[in-house]
Amino acid sequence: MRVTAGNAPNKSPVLCVTDIRRCNLEGENDWLHIPRKVKLEDLANLYKRAGINPDECIYCGARKTDTDHLRPIVKGGRPSGFFHVTGNLVPACGPCNQSKSGLDWRAWINSKTAKGSPARRGTVDIDERYRQLERFEEIAGVKDAVPEDALRAAVGSELWDAYWRRRDEIVTLMEQAQRAAFGGAVVRFGGAER
After folding, report:
1. How far apart are CA 149 and CA 84, in angstroms?
2. Which of 8, 65, 109, 171 has the most Cβ atoms closer than 10 angstroms to its Cβ?
């Protein structure tokens, strides 16, 4: 399946829905590659090169129970510009994964105020873990986030805007249902309190 925006093939933003998504952002040579599959072998090799134990939480050293997006893929209910790719996945424990949520890992890991952060829980080797994460990002080739306007252009403004309108309608309906079920209590869906 292929979705195109505009009339000029290979000149307009294009989204190919396959194992790899390619979005033409500005010109013929400016493509956004979004891998859709994570190969476990590649992930294991990346962990090994970065000195990360795949069986322990990279943030605190507890037993790994989760896999976390080091850079959140959603922030405030919107795309962050980072993706579910090998270079953005790290082993984590449930408490760290939940505590970090959509926060920047650098600020969170050393936070004395973030509930459940390694610093607040007294993790003793935070500096070493911080260095491992920096090395992981360096080896993985982590780049800046793709700006939302570039994602919108790549997908096509009509398709992008239709998606977000529909998403907002669904969030509103979910919140109305929750209010009805819980007697008017305020609930949060999609990163915003309503």
Report:
1. 19
2. 109
